[in-house]
């Protein structure tokens, strides 16, 4: 049974990881393309910069969620050892910290604060 689960989980983790990388890449390219178009139109540079940062931040946040899911699948289903669980914990902690700081930077407040 494990001979079937591990390769399937590895395949799924690889696909989800590729989706995460693709998401970040596509959002970055879209945000950059949109900013260039707006610069050509001579729009306000401050609003262009803010929207570029917002779009890029959203893409990174979404991509990080996919990458975390991929790491969890790989660790739990393919290579379950105390060492890989420790590494997974550190990776998830770092990526969660990055997600939290990006969210704070984009919205200007902590996620648990009321929408005021």
From TrEMBL:
Membrane-traversing stretches: 6-33, 59-78, 84-102
InterPro entries per the UniProt record, alphabetical: DUF1622
Domain of life (superkingdom): Bacteria
Claim: Phosphoprotein is one of the keywords in the record: no
A matching Pfam family: DUF1622
Keyword list, A-Z: Membrane, Transmembrane, Transmembrane helix
UniProt name for this protein: DUF1622 domain-containing protein
Organism: Lacimicrobium alkaliphilum
């Amino acid at each position: 049974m494990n001979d079937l689960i591990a390769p399937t989980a590895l395949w799924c983790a690889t696909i989800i990881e590729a989706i995460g990388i693709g998401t970040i890449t596509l959002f970055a390219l879209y945000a950059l393309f949109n900013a260039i178009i707006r610069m050509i139109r001579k729009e306000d540079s401050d609003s262009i910069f803010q929207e570029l940062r917002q779009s890029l931040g959203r893409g990174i946040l979404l991509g990080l969620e996919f990458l975390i899911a991929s790491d969890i699948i790989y660790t739990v289903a393919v290579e379950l050892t105390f060492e890989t669980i420790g590494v997974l914990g550190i990776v998830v902690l770092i990526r969660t910290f990055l997600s939290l700081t990006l969210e704070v930077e984009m919205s200007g407040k902590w996620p648990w604060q009321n929408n005021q």
